């Protein structure tokens, strides 16, 4: 296939986005799945201006749900094909934090995480700024209240005393977020044309090379065996081979008189030579 340099650059950009979305940065998602779960964290913000808010669509792409950027803004509401198609956009707050976990040997492990919340949660963190100043210098405990699937689940954020969670142990290290951008790793950036392709995917027609081969069967006609002694005239006689026979008149015997008591005379002389003839009697 022949393509120009611009298409090559677009393909490289698309491949880079796919690679980024696989999240090779080492930043994972923060989650407290069960009621009563809690975690020790530190938020990666020194000002509310650093908050990462996004207007996104959730779209199923190749069997997986993805977050896609919305093209509409405050000045235009008809630029996004996903909005036009009826896919409602939602405002999301991607909270950046580091989670502290204690290993089996007692040491503390730092894990960079993204906590996906609604934009209303930005007000919660803003209240923390009002109460504690620069929240990146503070350690907090987050506790979940609510079972899995409960729509009324709440997350309480409590200040953790440095007397217990000592800063030299729970160190402030945000280096995992260097050069990290939400738009590169958490949200797919698509143009209007690319969104149209997602909404109206073109089915690829199978080529001759990748079509599955179908089994072939040899159709064998049944054969009929004939005997060499087969006589056609024996099975299919014609008029020349049919013998004409003269019908015979049936013989009718004279009925016997039941009142005639005369017995027929029988002679045994011829049958038995030398025998004495029997007498006959008439009644």
Major pleated sheet? 8 strands, mixed
Q: What's the assembly state of these chains?
A: single chain
Q: What is the string of SSEs from the N terminus onward?
A: HEEEEHEEHEEHHH
Mean pLDDT: 78
Give me the secondary-structure category. alpha+beta
Describe this structure in words.
With 283 residues, the protein is α+β, with helices and mostly antiparallel strands. The chain has a domain at 29-199: Alpha-Beta Complex (Replication Fork Single-Stranded DNA Binding Protein), CATH 3.90.198. 17% of the residues lie in helices and 22% in strands. It has helices spanning 5-21, 81-84, 121-132, 182-185, 192-199, 232-235, and strands at 28-29, 38-43, 52-61, 64-69, 90-102, 108-118, 139-145, 154-160. The model is unreliable at 17-23 (pLDDT under 50).
In short:
With 283 residues, the chain is α+β, with helices and mostly antiparallel strands. The chain has six helices and eight strands, in the order H-E-E-E-E-H-E-E-H-E-E-H-H-H. It is 17% helix and 22% strand.
